[in-house]
Design a protein that fits this description.
The complex is a heterodimer of chains A (523) and B (238).
Chain A (H helix, E strand, L loop, with lengths): L2 E6 L2 H4 L3 H14 L6 E6 L11 E4 L7 E4 L6 H13 L12 E3 L4 H4 L17 H6 L4 H9 L2 H11 L11 H10 L6 E6 L8 H8 L1 H15 L3 E6 L4 H16 L15 E6 L9 H8 L23 E5 H18 L3 E8 L5 E6 L4 H8 L9 E6 L5 E4 L9 H6 L8 E6 L4 H15 L5 H18 L7 H15 L3 H5 L2 H9 L1 H5 L9
Parallel strand pairs in A: 1-2, 6-7, 6-9, 7-8, 10-14
Antiparallel strand pairs in A: 1-3, 3-4, 4-5, 10-11, 12-13, 12-14
Helix pairs in contact in A: 2-3, 6-10, 7-8, 7-10, 7-13, 9-11, 10-13, 16-17, 17-18, 18-20
Chain B lengths: L2 E6 L2 E6 L4 H7 L23 E4 L6 E2 L10 E3 L3 H17 L14 H8 L16 E2 L5 E4 L8 H10 L4 E4 L6 E4 L16 H5 L5 E3 L12 H12 L5
Parallel strand pairs in B: 1-5
Antiparallel strand pairs in B: 1-2, 3-4, 3-5, 6-7, 7-10, 8-9
Classes of the chains: A alpha/beta (523), B alpha+beta (238).
Chain lengths: 523, 238
């Protein structure tokens, strides 16, 4: 087996010159005629984004994989020369990119992960369906089609306890059963890839690193609920994910894993891409469906639920990228080995090592942030961890032993959310954080319902007034009262969630607020 | 037709299954305030004025689209709801520039009436005084964005009843504005049939007849209902 050098080509490393690096290295190997010895390939996210650009060397099946970070991409020519030399002299196992740093793969950042969704991410070339197939892609779809028992698949998903990974955590199996039971023969499957929470990039990682797993999950779902058409709604800000999805869909069609009579069965399934135009609210499922139909993306009240009346009025199953990507692993492992499953997080903020990780459901926040992420920088301490984006909240440092699961986080006044995890150290003013998210919601409100359209503006102005030192007695009470009102009365999740960062910081970090109001009103 | 019986405040109501809570409340003469809702147009549940509490449910439900259920217990005027309604009206007043004394709709304005109804004698939230334009390009009508509450009745009546679809909502969030055509001056939009239905259903003085002065605009949403009934029954001579 020849050696392989994997170059991370995910958006973060790419922004640090990984694309040029990959190009220069593979050109050099090609022009030296050493392609039989070493393959230089681009792969999806290799994990620790803070250490990018990243390279992984698999010198031989016996040798341990070596991961290198902080590669000086500007010195690509010198690196190419040393790499060519090493390939020519059969010393690839000893090759070390000058200026780069070896990253210990035994570090808890890697060791404490359980990679189900991200199993192939960073391993395979996301543009090659052959590599995906060799890694096992579409095998579960094939098995499902051979068995041809949709009800059993739905039951298995139900019994697995899999819940929507997009944030709301609705039981996936229940949703599937509802769509399957909806009358009609024309049904749709929609993949929500409109990931928009600030600090969240899990879905982007999955789509960029292993698009076929998502397509396979969609096809399995479509077969289970009786759909023959699907849409992937992906935001325009993810050009690389869009390009890789286009490639993957075309390749899957070419190999008969999408289209008519898949794997010789009577199951047909087509997938179309829909690219969003930049509105955060289009990640809300009813707004997303409007947008797919070509309308202004605005939420509508439920019921009717998408399972009854979705895109174009047809029964529609809508799940998140990560939910779909869980299915092949769930079916392959079976209920027992799958267990409680995993959750992918994008770990960012004031931690030493940030990046994309996948951990067993129920891992404690402390384990993720301190053991895996390395905690705060020297001399600093962690103050809070923000989860759930603009609809979530902040977990204070003294609650870091909370396990990450839907109920525990909800009890703390935040939500699991889609997987964005922003760590904040003691230099952070929590009112600043609350205002950041409120300004975000103000900007992203669609304007349909009054409490969200006008309430977020008033809340943002109030927070700005507090931070500007112009607070009047009673402002804090007004802030709290209006937060509850907007939360209770808004039409969709965006408005209902918008006050949560304020409410959660008021709950856990009230002193930060009290420091900003005149003394006589402090309590 | 099967009936549903439910309780709204102190009233027992029996109404056809599939009816909305708002219909049931009106049947029982229980007044639930509404703003974006207008009989004859599709319901969008956007203004949130008609939110009610239902026993056994944590979430507040908009009466205009919530279907009645057997045994349902609806509360329409709890202190919590009253405070919410007042805050909603405050949000609407502070969001635009509503100056009743110089408004064409003064005395016949649904927003004004709601403010009286919910007891909003002043706003606890600061006024924002946005800079909004007035469109006087149409020969018969005018649009004053300062007075618009974005209820979208005009958008719906023009699309659903007149079939012209002159109106839409442009931009988003606080920048939302009713737009004519593809954001053209109203007078330049050829699709407009000059029917005036949008003016008729507008709850405030935002849409008005040119030449109307203070207090002179009398909207008449009942004409829409008469029209819808005539169309439905194919009877044009009441």
């Amino acid at each position: 087996m020849k050696a392989c050098l994997r170059v991370c080509s995910a958006a973060s490393c790419r922004s640090r010159g990984a694309a040029t690096l990959q190009h220069t290295l593979s050109e050099a190997i090609a022009s030296a005629g050493l392609e039989h010895r070493l393959r230089v390939k681009e792969v999806g996210c290799l994990g620790p984004c803070s250490d990018g650009p990243l390279l992984a060397m698999d010198a031989s099946p016996e040798a341990q994989t070596q991961l290198y970070g902080s590669i000086p991409a500007a010195d690509a020519a010198q690196l190419a020369a040393s790499l060519t030399q090493a390939a020519a002299r059969h010393t690839l196992a000893q090759w070390c990119p000058a200026g780069g740093q070896r990253i210990d793969l035994n570090h808890p950042f890697f060791q404490l992960q359980r990679r189900l969704v991200l199993e192939h991410c960073g391993q395979i070339d996301p543009n090659s369906i052959e590599e995906a197939l060799a890694a096992g892609a579409y095998r579960q779809l094939e098995r499902v089609l051979q068995t041809n028992n949709p009800a059993a698949v739905i039951e298995q998903v139900q019994r697995s306890g899999l819940r929507g990974r997009g944030g709301a955590g609705y039981p996936t199996g229940l949703k599937w059963a509802a769509v399957a039971q909806s009358p009609g023969t024309d049904k749709l499957v929609v993949c929500n890839a409109d990931e928009g929470d600030p600090g969240a990039f899990m879905d982007r990682t999955v789509l960029e690193g292993d698009p076929h797993t998502v397509l396979e999950g969609m096809a399995i779902a479509a077969h289970a609920v009786g759909a023959s058409r699907g849409f992937i709604y992906v935001r325009a800000e993810y050009p690389l994910a869009i390009a890789r999805l286009h490639t993957a869909i075309a390749a899957a069609h070419g190999q008969g894993w999408l289209g008519m009579a898949i794997a010789g069965s009577r199951f047909n399934f087509d997938v179309e891409l829909r690219v969003g135009a930049g509105a955060y609210v289009c990640g809300e499922e009813t707004a997303l469906m409007q947008s797919i139909e070509g309308k202004r993306g605005m939420p509508r009240p439920r019921p009717p639920y998408p399972a009854e009346q979705g895109v174009f009025g047809l029964p529609t199953l809508i799940n998140n990228v990560e939910t779909f990507a869980n299915l092949p692993a769930l079916l392959r492992l079976g209920l027992e080995s799958y267990g409680r499953g995993t959750k992918v997080f994008s770990l960012t903020g004031h931690v030493r090592r940030s990046g994309v990780i996948e951990v067993p459901m129920g891992t404690s926040l402390r384990r993720i942030v301190e053991t895996m992420g390395g905690g705060a920088a020297a001399g600093r301490t962690i103050k809070a961890v923000q989860t759930g984006g603009p609809s979530g909240g902040c977990v204070p440092a003294n609650q870091l032993d909370t396990p990450v699961d839907y109920e525990s986080l909800k009890a703390l006044g935040t939500i699991m959310g889609s997987g964005g995890m922003v760590v904040m150290d003691d230099t952070t003013n929590m009112v600043d954080i609350a205002r950041f998210f409120m300004a975000f919601c103000r900007e992203e409100s669609c304007g349909k319902c009054v409490p969200c359209r006008a309430g977020t503006v008033q809340l943002d102005n109030l927070l700005e007034k507090l931070l500007g030192g112009r607070a009047a007695p009673g402002d804090l009470e007004q802030l709290e009262r209006l937060c509850h009102m907007v939360k209770d009365t808004s039409l969709c999740g965006l408005g209902q969630g918008a006050p949560k960062p304020v409410l959660s910081t008021l709950r856990h970090f009230r002193d930060d607020y009290l420091a900003l109001v005149p003394a006589e009103t402090s309590r | 037709m099967s009936l549903c019986s439910l309780r709204i405040d102190d009233h027992e109501v029996a109404i056809a299954a599939g009816s909305t809570v708002l219909q049931a409340a009106r049947e029982a003469s229980v007044a639930i305030p509404t703003l974006c809702f207008l009989e004859g147009l599709s319901a969008v549940a956007a203004c949130r004025m008609c939110l009610v509490e239902v026993s056994g449910s944590d979430t507040l439900l908009p009466a205009c689209i919530t279907r009645v259920q057997e045994g349902m217990q609806v509360h329409t005027a709890t202190p919590r709801l009253q405070d919410i309604r007042r805050t909603l009206i405050e949000l609407l007043f502070t969001e635009g520039n509503h100056v009743c004394a110089i408004c064409v709709a003064n005395g016949h304005c649904e927003l004004q009436n709601l403010a009286v109804e919910v007891g909003m004698d002043h706003s606890r939230l600061p006024y924002r005084f946005p800079d909004r334009p007035v469109d006087l390009s149409h020969p018969l009508f005018g649009l004053d964005h300062n007075r618009c509450v974005l209820c979208t009745r005009c958008v719906r009546v023009c699309d659903e009843v007149e079939g012209a679809h002159v109106w839409d909502v442009g931009w988003r969030g606080e920048h939302c504005r009713i737009i004519a055509g593809l954001e053209e001056p109203w007078g330049a939009v050829e699709a407009c049939t000059h029917c005036g239905k949008c003016v008729e259903v507008c709850p405030t003085g935002a849409l008005f007849h040119r030449g109307d002065t203070t207090e002179e605009k009398h909207s008449d949403p009942a004409r829409l209902q008469a029209l819808m009934q005539a169309r439905q029954q194919q009877r044009w001579n009441p």
